[in-house]
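Follow-up to my post from last week.
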Amino acid sequence: MAVQTVASSTSGSTVDLGPAAALSCRECGHRVPLGPVFACDKCFGPLEIAYDFSAYDTEELRKKIEAGPANIWRYAPLLPVPADVADKPNLNPGWTKLVKADNLAGELGVTGGLYVKDDSGNPTHSFKDRVVAQALEAARAFGFTTLSCSSTGNLAGAVGAAAARAGFRSCVFIPHDLEQGKVVMAAIYGGDLVGIEGNYDDVNRFCSELIGDPAGEGWGFVNVNLRPYYAEGSKTLAYEVCEQLGWRLPDQIVVPIASGSQLTKVDKGLQELIKLGLVEDKPYKIFGAQAEGCSPVSTAFKAGHDVVRPQKPNTIAKSLAIGNPADGPYVLDIARRTGGAVEDVTDEQVVDAIKLLARTEGIFAETAGGVTVGVTRKLIESGALDPTKTTVVLNTGDGLKTLDAVAGTGLTATIRPTLDSFREAGLV
Amino acid sequence: MAVQTVASSTSGSTVDLGPAAALSCRECGHRVPLGPVFACDKCFGPLEIAYDFSAYDTEELRKKIEAGPANIWRYAPLLPVPADVADKPNLNPGWTKLVKADNLAGELGVTGGLYVKDDSGNPTHSFKDRVVAQALEAARAFGFTTLSCSSTGNLAGAVGAAAARAGFRSCVFIPHDLEQGKVVMAAIYGGDLVGIEGNYDDVNRFCSELIGDPAGEGWGFVNVNLRPYYAEGSKTLAYEVCEQLGWRLPDQIVVPIASGSQLTKVDKGLQELIKLGLVEDKPYKIFGAQAEGCSPVSTAFKAGHDVVRPQKPNTIAKSLAIGNPADGPYVLDIARRTGGAVEDVTDEQVVDAIKLLARTEGIFAETAGGVTVGVTRKLIESGALDPTKTTVVLNTGDGLKTLDAVAGTGLTATIRPTLDSFREAGLV
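User reply:
Got it. Predicted complex:
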């Protein structure tokens, strides 16, 4: 796909990351050149990518996107990646199905159109492939040779797979006592997988130390020193939803909250599409979904607080179990500004929602998908979500990765191999 | 997608399954009207779909396909489905990635272009979604209301999911002592899942009895009375490979063998594309891949036999473990006619090949994918497969479904959360 590359105008950097012009502090607006940094040197606020989209013509851009590949690189002109990104070896995630969920809509009483954005269709079956793909391009641009992260699950596999395909070494750090299945899913790609004697906090602390040490030289930690690039991958969820709706904004979108980064980037993506003229400028509401056992943001939302008080996670939705979500305050702001809400559901409701989605639409979601579907149901019942409006629910992962959560699901009947025995079972 | 529907000309039937004109016996050529039957009433040979493609103009057809949806229904004009199939609720499988596997090619010494057709990207993560989607349309056409099958794994989930989305009841039969993980994957979609006290043969025998019994009235068994329709789904693998190569035939294609049906339909699909003028008519070779522990077809191939002697399966590649493959003789014929071969690999080689594919391309394959990659390597070493030619290897399923096979894969190191401990581990 030939795209217009806008040179970095303010940074003076020679790094080619397409339309990415600089890093900009989300708190104080201070700009710094593109580089493997994540905190503002003035105020320690989080850095994010600032773009120069000024050269784009709306209809030319739309045509370029529509003629692009069936993956996230159709949006290369809007991402911090070089224009020829699609020619480089990577897993090409994205362009997952937006499923019109009429059966689920019937059960939930939604009449305005209900859609499930099913990110289990990504190469390693979670939305993490989207964000890792951006971090990989940044790692290439900065000359890193090892791709790394701290992880308790989906991210480890996504990094291992992407690094294998791209010819990077990978070294991923996890708590040493993870379930064997998760270890296999991460180790199969042949990179180094290091178990740390400690919990996830210890793993994170160790990674931060390693970044400042000579031993970590040449290492890109996708969710630490490459975080500003990594996080942008979630914008592609917003782009795809709108394009798949026929270049329309949804009225309502339900997004899971772990660190909160995904929700803030979905909002950023929708805002960009409006500014670029690719969709009509009209109101939309963003809803955040948490599990009750790790609900620091929904607790703050309901209490009317601006500050998020950390919690100790205890939920089956482990991919959302971040007790001190970095982007929590931004999530609160977006939910309130758009007229959305943040809600949570119990583990039992998560399991019910996983089964509901599977039974109605044939989609087997990870626990995080159970959280968004469960919260959608709860928000409809409470009246916070309008069932007459177009609503999109994100499923960010695959049920095969969290089989334990629904381990109670089993046989309807056990019979002898005879017709009499079958008739006795009462199934006909 | 608007397509030309060719009315059934020979059957007198009122069933609308697009270009499907009749069922035709693969042995004696006897034609019967489209219906839920699978064996010839003259000679008991297997029935397959006979099409009327006579009205198609090559370039119009190509344009229709290219403008079609990003799933198997882009090929609706070549499948036994109604023209409006894409508007009906189903899982929309297919159009999975054809990955240019340059890293794997480097390891195997392939210089002519090596591609992995990665069917783990399907909705329930195996190629079974392709075949079930065809059976579902046949079930709709014949007025069935329950979708059923006998299964030991992938098929149960594919049927359960497709039935849920399409609003069919499902009732799937499995051996009662299947692993809990496989039971969960099949049961999650909410259909009836019946455990039969006995082995897979007992399950199959029971299903055949049920078809002839009033208790089975209105039931479509995807792999029994709907088998002629079901089997056609594998043609879409051939279509997609050729279109994704830029409407070119591959020189060599490596296909796994369970019943052998998939390999025969890949050949049928390639032949159809040649006859329709969508690809150039040139020679191609089809290779069959089996696990040594269930290698009735490769044993017959190597011995020069036309008859396949049944074996008792004993391999980790359970999705290929059919000891008495119905299409074995047809597979032998195709491998010999095209200049291909049938080869097998040990379970150890299967595991090595799974790891090789994951390490080089970031693709985590099911054991069946380990079989095809392992056989590809063996065929290159023996000289049967030409490394200077364009070669496509099928991966028909997802590694998450056969984690047990690679359960030995684990941590590179376990360390304390300190830089000293990390340095001692010798990873930097």
